[in-house]
Design brief:
By secondary structure, this protein is an alpha/beta fold. The chain has helices at about 10-25, 25-35, 35-50, 65-95, 105-110, 115-125, 135-145, 210-220, 235-240, 290-295, and strands at about 55-60, 65, 100-105, 130-135, 150-155, 165-170, 175-180, 190, 200, 225-230, 245-250, 260-265, 265-270, 275-280, 300-304. The strands form 4 sheets. It has a 6-stranded mixed β-sheet, sandwiched between helices. Strands 10-9-11-7-12 form a 5-stranded mixed β-sheet. Helix 1 packs across helix 2, helix 1 (about 10-25) packs across helix 3 (about 35-50) and helix 1 crosses helix 4.
Length: about 300
Amino acid sequence: MPREYQFNFEIRHLIYFREVARMLHFRRAAESLGVAQPALSRQIAQFEQALGTSLFTRSQRRVELTPAGRHLFEKTEPWLRQLKRLPSELVSIAQGETGILRVGFTGLAMATVLPGVLREFQRSHPGVRVELNESPTATQLESIRAGDISCGFMHPDSLPDGFHHQLLLRERNGVVLPADHPLAKRRTLKLRDLAAVPLVLFPRYNNPSFYDRTLSAFSEAGVTPQIVEEIWPRANAVGLVRSGLGATLMCPSEAKLLPEDVTFKPLSGPTPESRLALAWLESPQASGTLTAFLAASGQRVTKK
């Protein structure tokens, strides 16, 4: 045992002291504790010796706390209450009823399934505080391995070994254009219509699989995309579209609240598909809060 945690007294000494201090009477305290009065007196004397100070002044008529005893009595009650609560608190944490759950997410998650999952989880587990961290898929995977977050809403392509996931959403991407762009007058577009349109994408290292799938869709359409900028989060690309820099790809769910000076157009033909999953690291020591959160997320798959 580390030296700083080697004490010459035990919890029972605190309990005995607390009862004598509460009653200021050794006989009544002994009866309350169910121990013999001489034994209680010896325990208190041992406690005082271990602490190196007197806790009580004794006379034939009365027992009083010393200044040190009064200070210890003020401290002892909160300590013992905390110890009493500790087993039930640990059980609550193990069962996912209390604690902190750290969750990563992408913009697609916040625009689609995440609000509903949070609402359901908070309704059934009000004692758990959920801390959210927006980050791309690659960063979330690193954070889960490091233990910084418990799970993450991410693109599930090519997850490393040891990860589990629930697929929650699949959507074909469309294109976001300035509202005054010539192509904005069309009802639907194809990727080949974007051959001469500058594009704003996201850095490949944030999600290599989806990035490569996007370029493959352009290749299948016979187009080499003109990528002029890469930015993350993807929602920030809308600001560059508004500035007239170019166009960007986006899911219909993300495009519901676009500003008036841009417009969303569905794509037909070869089109990159966004996939959203809740992913976590396989572990026999998974916390109860994580297990409960996974249950709240459900097993549903939405495809558009």
